[in-house]
Amino acid sequence: KRNEWTYSALINACTKGRQLEHAMRLHASMLHEGIRSNTVTFNTLISACEKGSQWERALEIYEQMKAEDIQPDILTYTALIAACSHSGQVEQSMKLYEEMKSAGIDANTRTY
Question: Are the beta carbons of 46 and 62 closer than 8 angstroms?
Fold first, then answer.
């Protein structure tokens, strides 16, 4: 039986293959089946957006995550900051970094 972990693994495989649209379709299927996203699912989607140079979409997913009351973690912020900085969105990256620090989450070596 499929669950959020199965879908997260499938979305991650799409991310590694740079198949962003397929990852998004899998997420839509997951939601259609009534399976809620978790932190891992959202982080994987954000990472897929980062790899696909879709920083705005990454931020949309982040907003959806917060709207569903799922708490972001260091992996969330690291992927978001990478998505923004790789797309030249330095101000947005700094805003996310400050938000992360305000949430009490310490940066790690990957964040920098």
Answer: yes
